[in-house]
Amino acid sequence: MSFPAASVTIDVVICTYNNAAGLDLTLATLAAQQSLPLVSWRVCVVDNNCTDATAQVLDRYARSGALPDLRVVRETIQGLTPARHRGVSETTGPWIAFVDDDCSLADDWVAQAGRFAADHPDCGAFGGRVVVDWQTPPPGHVRRNGWLFAEQDLGGPQREVTWLVGAGMVLSRAAVVSSGWFDQPLLEDRVGTRLVSGGDVEITTRIRAAGYPLWYVPACTLRHRVPAIRTSPDYVRRLSRGLGTSAVLLDAVHWPGPRQRWLPPTVLACLRRSRWLARSWLGSAGRHSADRKDLAVHIPFAYGQWLGIWRLVRSREVRRTLIGNAVRDHKRRP
């Protein structure tokens, strides 16, 4: 691996909630990272009100000295978005890497991230190849829909992209501040055991809207561990529904026109998707059950979209807070 063009510092932020065993595995892969000249890094774990053995796991790593400058901070407001915000506010490095507590990093992940960051100082954010690590073989229709579990494999060489998944995303601190996200995060993301999401995509799309490029860097490879319980029919339905709701809210955040004109095109798009799903479901009546199993993953997503629309329609305050906010915030900045 070639040396980076300049020195770089990365703050690795891990937000965790009652996942001591998973956190232990993630920290073990960080402790095994290769060193690379001119790349320095630190670890900050954000304890989001854990009541399991998380404290003991962290104490063991702190006493062992296996991780550079390991710090633990606590965020009492429940949810991944406030935990990420705490991680940004408690660190100072020019680059912030969000690593989930259910991810295992390749042993050169930090080195590859540091090299790319040093060679691309104007990048707003980048992310790598995310491989779903099924802890038990999942049903075929679940495996075919890896997007539910933050799968990110765009193949080929590194290139610019329009959005990134949250697992292993690396952010420029300057871009985060310029995007307005640090001043006002808009979307929830994983509050306790609730399967809401979208906060990660909000960060990167707001960074892109502020004029910073996003990059896919496949050399930064990690594995996203998915236990068997997360492939159950009920979990998959709830996950897909939550992603559908988040998709509508995220689109609303980036709505470029007058707030009062947001509803008609959004409803029309959801109607078209729902009609396509209904026709596909009816058309698959005589086919192999695999067709309907795949559709059964997408139908809750469409339902979640309608729930997102209803959430915005029924609350004036939510509409005022979300619709077009990222666009207006960007226009207010010099």
Task: Report the sheet with the most strands, covering strand number, pairing sense and barrel closure.
Answer: 9 strands, mixed
From the helix content, strand content and strand pairing, which structural class follows?
A: alpha/beta
Q: Low-confidence segments, ≥5 residues, pLDDT <50?
A: 330-334
Beta-strand share of residues: 15-25%
Mean pLDDT across every amino acid position: 89
The CATH superfamily of the largest domain is identified as Spore Coat Polysaccharide Biosynthesis Protein SpsA, Chain A
Number of helices: 12
Rg: 20 Å
CATH second-level architecture of the largest domain = Alpha-Beta Complex
Secondary-structure map:
Elements: E1 8-16, H1 20-31, E2 39-47, H2 54-64, E3 71-74, H3 80-89, E4 95-98, E5 103-105, H4 109-119, E6 125-134, H5 140-143, E7 159-161, E8 169-172, H6 173-179, H7 199-209, E9 214-226, H8 233-253, H9 263-283, H10 289-314, H11 316-322, H12 325-332
Parallel strand pairs: 1-2, 1-4, 2-3, 6-9
Antiparallel strand pairs: 4-8, 5-9, 6-8, 7-9
Helix pairs in contact: 1-2, 6-7, 8-10, 9-10, 10-11
